[in-house]
Amino acid sequence: MSEWTKHNLIDLKDLTKEEIELILDTAKSFKEISTRDVKKVPTLRGKTVVMLFFESSTRTRLSFELAAKRLSADTLSVAASSSSMTKGESILDTARNIEAMNVDMIVVRHKSSGVPNILADGLKASVINAGDGCRAHPTQALLDIFTIRERFGKVAGLNVGIVGDILHSRVARSNIWGLKTMGAHITVCGPSTLMPRGIEQLGVKVSHNIDEVIASSDALMLLRLQQERQEDKFLPSTREYAKVFGVNRAKLKNAKKHLLIMHPGPTNRGVELSSDVADGEFSVILSQVTNGVAIRMAILYLLLGTKDKLELEGKI
Amino acid sequence: MSEWTKHNLIDLKDLTKEEIELILDTAKSFKEISTRDVKKVPTLRGKTVVMLFFESSTRTRLSFELAAKRLSADTLSVAASSSSMTKGESILDTARNIEAMNVDMIVVRHKSSGVPNILADGLKASVINAGDGCRAHPTQALLDIFTIRERFGKVAGLNVGIVGDILHSRVARSNIWGLKTMGAHITVCGPSTLMPRGIEQLGVKVSHNIDEVIASSDALMLLRLQQERQEDKFLPSTREYAKVFGVNRAKLKNAKKHLLIMHPGPTNRGVELSSDVADGEFSVILSQVTNGVAIRMAILYLLLGTKDKLELEGKI
Amino acid sequence: MSEWTKHNLIDLKDLTKEEIELILDTAKSFKEISTRDVKKVPTLRGKTVVMLFFESSTRTRLSFELAAKRLSADTLSVAASSSSMTKGESILDTARNIEAMNVDMIVVRHKSSGVPNILADGLKASVINAGDGCRAHPTQALLDIFTIRERFGKVAGLNVGIVGDILHSRVARSNIWGLKTMGAHITVCGPSTLMPRGIEQLGVKVSHNIDEVIASSDALMLLRLQQERQEDKFLPSTREYAKVFGVNRAKLKNAKKHLLIMHPGPTNRGVELSSDVADGEFSVILSQVTNGVAIRMAILYLLLGTKDKLELEGKI
Asked: Does A266 contact B94 at a Cβ distance shorter than 8 Å?
């Protein structure tokens, strides 16, 4: 098994295939902990992890907090509305102040792309990107890749379709980087107004035919449609989107028997997918959520291990 | 002692006398823990309890969190404003996602009656109703019954008066179910606009004479007057309510010497009761709060025990 | 070492030199814990500390929570917006209800001076003032004094300048009390509209010449300028303030080589101080934050020790 040397997790494009595999293997061994009667190990006892969320989030914040608690770390949560941000301090100053309390790790979510990089550059604490703007959401992509590998035993050579608002999706971007690195074939599909120009340069195919994408896919990732995009005139109507790109039973008639229907949540039932598909035999949506805790436990464990090592060596 | 077999706590009308007694006896043994120098036992170490509060609450949320922490469970809190609800996801989907993180128990409060049932029906995690609409608030009633039993050594045969806005009170409804099951005699008293029609069918007496109710009661529960009811035209004025139904020293002149003045909080001093009564020798209002932690420790312990058993037997 | 007998911490004017020294010495021994690989000791296991913040705060709340967690206490946080306060209950009633859950300590912040006294008078739980109105912020002053003593090995005889909005600053007031008690010489400096009349009666010098204050100081505390003061007509303009009282490299040309530049945070870069000063060699701003956790660990430890003793002796 290769050694982990990274101190921050900002974007999957920074990781090699071996590094992604190390995360997935570590997560696999941690997943069992959450099924125990006593879901807790002392691994990160006495470590401090701060959630610094400038965008609201239920599942991602909970998932990180649970991951930290199950490893016995102490967690603290700072929501944007209650933070010093409202007093005009810069994000980096807020983070430096938090770090000065001997905090080991800051998990940050922000609506602006690049904020996690600013923190990673300015801090000694480990920084995890929990979603920045339209750019990256690496732990989401890792849990998606974990879920695919768990079902198929591999990722290389599989066909993965990503459907929806590719333009604004950090989930799509991180999955494209991670899945390409792992050797999957990716087809992106969505309304042309929501398809970034030149996306093919990332090594993906573009299709506007959802039926073809469904028929050829081993795993199909449906992206959440941000309703506010309609107000921004990117979409004619939600109803129109659902009719063309929404996945229902009828559209799945030519799907492979082992197709995985995936969604990062929260789902808009009746928009990206029908209720019978969300709750049906193809869906692994709740498995993704379960795996998210294991992935985050692995990330916390690996990054904090490197931080301890770098501190010991006097390098940070 | 009878065995506990329930997996959820939604409404006291689902519980037998033996089950309520088992909760009270368990709470009695747990109450001592909170008086120790080290207020913590390892009973629920590695269990995960999530507070899912769609209505704001200080004391109920704190009481549940403290109960969980004193049993060494991990707790996480989701407030409505920061939840995915604002992104249009259904409550059941939110709860299923939380459950998928291997959460053992969800404590839910919601302004709509029936939400806890929806969650209990759709989840394997244990569900505790921390108050739903005007319908039920079972842990409040249990702590009230505990407080009465603690003082009198029994509940059966006692006269309990419940005064105020019976129509909108989940506290009144849960106490009626629980106290009747335990054999108490109940008289409800309040303005006729705030008295539900046919309430006698629940086995209670209705009185509009507060003096008679005070004179005959062993315990008197004063319900919080929601000031917004006045705007809804249920009440002529708060001042008028306080004059007729507010309890002050003068009104207590014919009270039994051992009368308990109870209130679920937060109190409106000068409305439901005068300050000298709230802080006076009859008041057990703060004892109710103390007992609330013990009751919630007992509930967490009993429900999680059943959940573990059902899981072991492969039934959930 | 003298013995600690206080049960609350409301204002530094209540403390003797020996008591302040005991806090500083205790903090010194606790500071090392936060640099360990496992930043946690079992000292306050099973104790319950509640943060009751009626004003928003990031760093002070985090600092107290981390201090409590590193001593293994359980912590709970109540923010004003979610508290019963919005239901019209008095602050003391809210606090009494929290205390009734066998809570050991309440850390309170409120925009009105005197609220911590009201709680201390009405409760058996220990009360810590985390900032009340314009009056006192004792833990901030203690961490400031700790930082000065740590650098110089003493406080007595040092010259400390406090610059800015003295009129509205609880940080200034608490530092004046604490530093005077410890034998420092204090000069306050700021716009005359923001200088309280008769401040000299507290034993401080008043100067309106920032250059003189800088030249003579061993430590210089820059107070945060509340931007809303300008709207209140206390200030002609922020720009004017920055020009006269803002500290930049040029103004430091006659400073002592060992000058400490201090700020309670959050800083307004470009107003109270320039960025190169904030991040420069004189600045101990982040050390103050680090020391804040140690000071709060010491306070929690000392106050809870007294509370346990008083309870044992039946005195509370």
From this structure: yes
ipTM: 0.94
Sequential pLDDT tens for chain B (316 residues): 568 999 999 999 999 999 999 999 999 999 999 999 999 999 999 999 999 999 888 889 999 999 999 999 999 999 866 555 545 678 999 999 999 999 999 999 999 999 999 999 999 999 999 999 999 999 999 999 999 999 999 999 999 999 999 999 999 999 999 999 999 999 999 999 999 999 999 999 999 999 999 999 999 999 999 877 767 777 778 899 999 999 999 999 999 999 999 999 999 999 999 999 999 999 999 999 999 999 999 999 999 988 888 888 888 8
* B290:C76 CB<8 A: no
Chain B environment of A37 (Cβ under 8 Å): 46, 308
**Angle between helices C138-152 and C17-31 in degrees, nearest 10:** 70
Counting Cα atoms < 13 Å in the Cβ hemisphere of C60 gives: 27
Statement: C12-136+291-312 belongs to CATH 1.10.4160.10 = no
Which residues in chain C are closer than 8 Å to B58, comparing Cβ atoms? 78, 82-84, 94, 97-98
Note if A70 is an active site residue. Answer: no
- Residue whose pair of structure tokens reads 């006076």 in the numeric block: B280
- Which chain A residues are Cβ-neighbours of C290 within 8 angstroms? 100-102
Q: Is C208 a catalytic residue?
A: no
Which candidate in C50, C102, C106 is best for mutational testing of the B interface (most B CBs within 10 A)? C102
Structural class in CATH, domain A12-136+292-312: alpha beta
Helices (H), chain C: 17-31, 59-70, 91-99, 115-122, 138-152, 170-181, 210-216, 228-231, 238-245, 275-278, 285-312
Exposed / middle / buried, residue A92 (Cβ in 10 Å: 0-12, 13-18, 19+)? middle
The C-alpha of A82 sits at a distance from chain B's nearest C-alpha, in angstroms, of 12
Question: Has domain B138-288 been given CATH number 3.40.640.10?
Answer: no
Same fold, B12-136+292-312 and B138-288: yes
pTM of the model: 0.95
| Beta-bridge partner residues of C264 | none
